[in-house]
Every structure is written in structure tokens, then in C-alpha cells.
Write a structure and sequence with these properties.
This protein has 326 residues and is mainly α. 68% of the residues lie in helices and 4% in strands. The protein is built from 18 helices and 4 strands. The strands form 2 sheets. The chain has a two-stranded antiparallel ribbon. Strands 3-4 form a two-stranded antiparallel ribbon. A hairpin with a 2-residue loop joins strand 3 and strand 4. Helix 2 packs antiparallel against helix 3. The longest helix is centred in the N-terminal third of the chain and has 19 residues. It starts with a helix and ends with a helix.
Length: 326
């Protein structure tokens, strides 16, 4: 912290004889070193307000090309993510005031970071993957903080859907739901229920998992604002078919059904028919996920059969399979 402060002081007080061009270059070099000096502070920060201030300062520094390059070469964002994931607890309350932690400063700091990097596509994508949308960090945060963070992403995704589609992707959102927001039967690689960070035990907010997961899934609809691709539809269908968590299958089917029933419906159903058609939701019924999933799957089956004029020969097969299953 003392080195950071002395660096700022040196940048703010140039020698009287300094040439303007040399001073500007010196300031940029100083900013590059300050970015690396800033990284360890993320490992000792406590609370959302302190982290928000650090992210805001990092955002200001990274607007300078030398600082962005220093961050790239020094893998600063990866180091920050490691510190947050292993050492920095996010308490329910701010100490010592004892009041509920306000998520606004942290969310504002992350938003400022993404805005500062919007002109550098590679660094923006890295900041998303490692920090802003790294739910391995934030899944243990208080529900209010997670909800505010996901709402920030929803707004940003609505404003720049293609950027999120290209740099985040539908598949990545589905993976986050599967590994970080599971309710039952976690898959290999899924987050544990509790972790220890900085000597504090952090637990996932179990009661809020499904509302938060639905917020995260809403990004998918925002990304596919114009027309879903066959690969995106296949990713959603695959998540519904192969997930072991019954509640996640239900939530994913709801997303797919809402897209099929919207103005993007004909294109989405055409993609579904190309990768299996009505047999895909039928497989969800066969898997025995429960009544809610069965109802959603049957609604999806009816849309597939209704849209496909050539589906009449297979309709009997569908009914036969369904009768046998039920």
C-alpha cells in the first residue's frame, strides 16, 4: 500500500524540468507498475465496499495502454481471481458497522471495469470470464449482491447482446448454472456447499439458488435477441437432456419453451427438428424428472409436431413411446 501511495505521489508531482512528452510516458509506465502493485490488495480486502473501490481504481488505471499491457503480461486479472476465489470472504454484513452489506459499490466497480475494457475485446472477455461472471467467486456471496451483479449483466447484455454472445456464450451460461447453481445431485467439478476463505466459512445461499439461477438463465434470451443458431439450441437441449438436477432440467426447459413460443419460435423449432425434433423433449419425459418437467416437455413436443408438416409418420411412434413410458 505504501509503494502504491508513493507511486501515485510521484505521478502527481512531476519535476519542474520534465518535458511534457517524457512526463506522459513516465506516467504510463508508472500506471503499469501500479496495476501490479494493486493486485495483492484484493487478497486482504474485506467487504463489498472495499472490493468495489479496488475495482474502480483498477478500471481507471486500465484505461491507459501501458497499464492494460502490464495487466496482460503480468496476468493481473487471473491473479486477482485466484485471490478472490481462495482468500477473500464476502460477509453478509459490513464490519464494524454491523449493517447489511450494500452490494452497490462492488457492482459499480465491476461495471466500471467492464466499461473501461470495452475497447479491448480480448481483455474484456478475460475480465468477464475471470472476474465479473466468474460465479465460482460470487456464488458464495450474499443473495442481494449476486442478484445485483446478475441484474447488471442483464442490462449490459441487453445493450450489447452480440458482445455477450461472442465473448460469454450460451454454453458458458449453462455451465455456470450446472456447476455453481445446482440444487441436488451435483456433477463432478461442481462447487461444494461450503468453502473456507480467509479463515471464514462461506456457504452458498441455498434458499436463493433457484431465483438466482433463473436470473442467470435470462441472459440466454438476451443474447439470442435476433435469431438463435442451431448450435445454441443444441446446447440448451443438451443441458436439459444430460443434467442430473431435476430442477435445472425444469428451468432450462422453461427457457427453451419461452423461446419457442416467442417471435423467434419458428427458427428455434426448425433447429430442434434438425437435431432430433420431438424425440428430444420425449427423452426428458423418459428420464423421469417429475411432473413439472413432463408437462413442459409435452408442451414442447406439441410445438415440434405442430410445426413439422412431415411429422405425421413419426407421430404414431411418439405416441407409442409416450404410452409405454407413462
Amino acid at each position: 500500500l505504501l509503494r502504491l501511495r508513493s507511486g501515485c505521489a510521484a505521478a502527481a508531482a512531476p519535476p519542474a524540468s520534465a518535458e511534457p512528452g517524457r512526463f506522459a510516458k513516465g506516467m504510463e509506465r508508472c500506471a503499469g507498475s501500479l496495476v501490479l502493485e494493486l493486485v495483492p490488495l484484493f487478497g486482504v480486502a474485506r467487504g463489498a465496499a472495499a472490493l468495489g473501490a479496488l475495482f474502480a481504481l483498477l478500471a481507471a488505471l486500465l484505461q491507459l495502454p501501458a497499464a492494460a499491457e502490464a495487466s496482460r503480461q503480468g496476468r493481473a486479472l487471473a491473479a486477482i481471481a485466484c485471490l478472490l476465489q481462495k482468500w477473500t470472504p464476502l460477509p453478509e454484513r459490513d464490519a464494524p458497522a454491523g449493517r447489511a452489506a450494500d452490494p452497490a459499490p462492488l457492482v459499480a466497480g465491476l461495471s466500471a471495469l467492464l466499461s473501461a475494457l470495452r475497447g479491448d475485446a480480448a481483455l474484456w472477455a478475460e475480465a468477464q470470464r475471470l472476474l465479473a461472471l466468474n460465479m465460482r467467486i460470487w456464488a458464495y456471496a450474499p443473495p442481494a449482491l449476486q442478484s445485483s451483479l446478475l441484474e447488471m449483466h442483464r442490462g449490459a447484455c441487453s445493450a450489447s447482446p452480440e458482445l455477450y454472445r461472442r465473448s460469454v456464450s450460451v454454453s458458458h451460461v449453462l455451465d455456470l448454472c450446472r456447476l455453481c447453481y445446482w440444487v441436488a445431485e451435483p456433477e463432478p467439478g461442481a462447487l461444494p456447499e461450503e468453502v473456507t476463505r480467509g479463515g471464514a466459512v462461506c456457504a452458498r445461499p441455498t434458499e436463493s439458488i433457484r431465483p438466482l439461477r433463473r436470473q442467470l438463465l435470462s441472459l440466454i434470451d438476451n443474447m439470442m435477441h435476433d435469431q438463435p443458431t442451431q448450435g445454441e439450441v443444441a446446447a440448451i437441449a443438451t443441458a436439459a437432456l444430460h443434467c442430473r438436477d431435476h430442477s435445472l432440467v425444469e428451468d432450462v426447459l422453461r427457457v427453451l419453451l419461452e423461446i419457442c413460443e416467442s417471435r423467434r419460435g419458428p427458427g428455434t423449432i426448425a433447429h430442434l427438428q434438425a437435431i432430433g425434433g420431438a424425440f428430444l423433449p420425449l427423452s426428458c419425459v423418459v428420464a423421469g424428472h417429475g411432473e413439472e418437467v413432463d408437462v413442459l416437455a409435452l408442451r414442447l413436443m406439441s410445438l415440434c409436431v405442430r410445426e413439422d408438416g412431415a411429422a405425421e409418420p413419426s407421430l404414431g411412434s411418439l405416441i407409442g413411446c409416450l404410452t409405454t413410458t407413462l
